[in-house]
Write a structure and sequence with these properties.
CATH class: Alpha Beta
Number of helices: 1
CATH architecture: 3-Layer(bab) Sandwich
Strand content: 35-45%
CATH superfamily: minor pseudopilin epsh domain
Largest sheet: 5 strands, antiparallel
Structural class: alpha+beta
Number of strands: 12
Radius of gyration: 17 Å
Distance between the termini: 42 Å
Helix content: 10-25%
Number of domains: 1
Length: 169
Amino acid sequence: MIVILSGSFVSLSRDVLQQRQLDICVCTLAEDLQMLRMKSISTHQNLKIVFYPTDNYYAFETEENGLNCSGKYITRTFPKNIGFPFYFGILTPAYVDEYGSICSGSVEFGYSGSPLLPRTLTFKYAGTPSAGGHVILTSYPDLRSSVVIVKVATGRIRVGQVSFFSMDS
C-alpha cells in the first residue's frame, strides 16, 4: 500500500515540477519582454528580442548607461524539456484565442515565412512593438503549454494557459 502511494506521489510531484518549470520559463520571458519595453521607453531607442525556435533559445539587446549596445545580446536558453513546440517537432502548433481566432506558430510576430528562421520583435522608442503576436512554450513530453501574447497597439504583455493543437494532422 505504501509503495503504491509513494509511486503516485512521485508521479504527481514530477507533474507539479514540470508545470512549475514551465511557469518559471514563461514568467521569465514575460519579464524580459516587459523589461525590454520599459528600457526602450526610458532610453528612447529601438530594442530587439530575437527568438530561435529551432535552437530553443531567445536573445535580447542590452543597453548600458542609457545607450543601446547594438550587437550585444543577453541569451536565455530553455531547459531540455521546456521550449518552443517547433523544437520538439511540432511544426505548426496552434491555439484558439479569446476571440475564437486560430493563432498558429511557435513564435509569430507579423511574419509568416519559414518557421526555421529566427523571429524578431522590436520595441520602438515609444514602447510599442513592431508587430503583435505570441510565443508558445511547451513542456515536453506531457505537452502542457502556455502562451505569452504581445498586443500590437499597446505593447501590453500577458500570459495565458492554452490547450494547443497541431495543424499538422
